[in-house]
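re the bet — no i am not wrong, look at it urself. input seq straight from the record:
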Amino acid sequence: MAPLPKGFSLQALPISAAIAEGRTKDAERLTYDILNAGNADKVVQKIAADMIRRHKRPRGRKKSLPQFWLQIGEQFSWLRSDGVKYEDALRQVADEFGYSETHVRKAIKEYDDAREASEDATRELYEEWEARDGRRK
């Protein structure tokens, strides 16, 4: 029988799975139990060391969505569908919400991206349903 790879550890599998699923408290508990029992292998020890010395966060603030992006995007979309020119609609929404045109542009982009993602997901769902119903007939 061939030897297992050096980075393979049966003890580390549940810990790695918990970390991958975002269950850090479970991973810490599992690591603690194995270390406390005194039979941790090198892979588990490395995971424990990484848990103790967490990686630094990137500098600066986390990226956040522009405030009221949904309301701004909807309002802009309604104005455009009513035939208002792009620049005029942009100015009207900026004045109404009290934000700069740059903020409104970013909010509109987020709104358009979210709307497109929603439409894509809905389209895929309908195609899946049609394919499933087509097989039944």
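see?? Residues 69-136 form one domain. told u. also Residues 101-136 form the longest helix (36 residues). so pay up
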